[in-house]
Design a protein that fits this description.
The protein has about 230 residues and is α/β, with parallel strands linked by helices. About 30% of the residues lie in helices and about 20% in strands.
């Protein structure tokens, strides 16, 4: 039976499902390699310990896009188990196919709505780290309600991240960064690791994406927010 605290809270999706023609490699990842890296959603909670060979701290990435950044982090951090959740098949297939080429063992992938996943299929206090890199900014004011970061989302991830665990968010939209900063600092369970109202330097563990490099050349900024979950 679903507990009251686990009932769905967000009815407006923060994403739009897009379809695109898959390359042979992407299709291979989605189909043939899915049993190796993909996680089918059960009716109840996912047993994270059964997904990996080694029992080590879990990192969840919400919305990994094409998967390049997550793959680099997985390679560089073999002492942690990474779980990526995404809805776009092209990115999922690409990530799985590349992980297979490199014989990665500390990665699992879910094709699902992240909010629904966290609400209904992940136990509380599961993750050492939750990362959300470059979420859709929904930059038009009338679409701001679609932004994934809101008070309900912060309440949700505070439950799923362990006490003293980390929440790391990065965005290249300044107004969204300001909103996320205000939201996190206004939440009783989160503490800014860099001090009040201060954005964090990009940690080495977060790779620079090709879009980020292009943005730098155009003079665009990127804002990292790293907070500790104190509950």
């Amino acid at each position: 039976m679903m507990q009251d605290s686990q009932r769905p809270i967000k009815t407006i999706q923060s994403f739009v499902r897009r379809s695109s023609k898959l390359t042979p490699g992407q299709r291979n990842g989605i189909t043939k390699l899915w049993p190796v890296y993909g996680v089918d959603i059960p009716t109840s909670y996912i047993d994270l310990d059964k997904l990996f060979i080694k029992k080590q701290p879990y990192v969840l990435e919400v919305g990994f896009g094409n998967g390049d950044t997550l793959l680099e982090m997985v390679i560089n951090t073999p002492n942690k188990n990474f779980i990526g959740v995404e809805v776009y098949e092209a990115g999922i297939g690409r990530l799985i196919n590349e992980a297979h080429k490199l014989k990665i063992s500390n990665l699992r992938v879910l094709k699902f709505d992240a909010v629904e996943l966290l609400n209904n299929h992940i136990k509380d206090d599961s993750f050492e780290t939750l990362q959300l890199f470059f979420p859709d900014p929904w930059h038009k004011k009338k679409h701001h309600k679609r932004r994934i970061v809101d008070s309900d989302f912060l309440n949700l991830i505070s439950r799923k991240v362990k006490n003293a665990g980390t929440v790391h968010i990065a965005t290249d939209w300044e107004d969204y960064a300001q909103y996320i900063m205000e939201s996190l600092e206004g939440h009783p369970n989160f503490k800014n690791t860099s001090g009040a109202h201060i954005y964090s330097p990009r940690p080495e563990i977060r790779p620079i994406t090709k879009f980020e490099r292009r943005g730098f050349r155009l003079g665009h900024g990127v804002w990292d927010l790293i907070f500790i979950n104190n509950k």
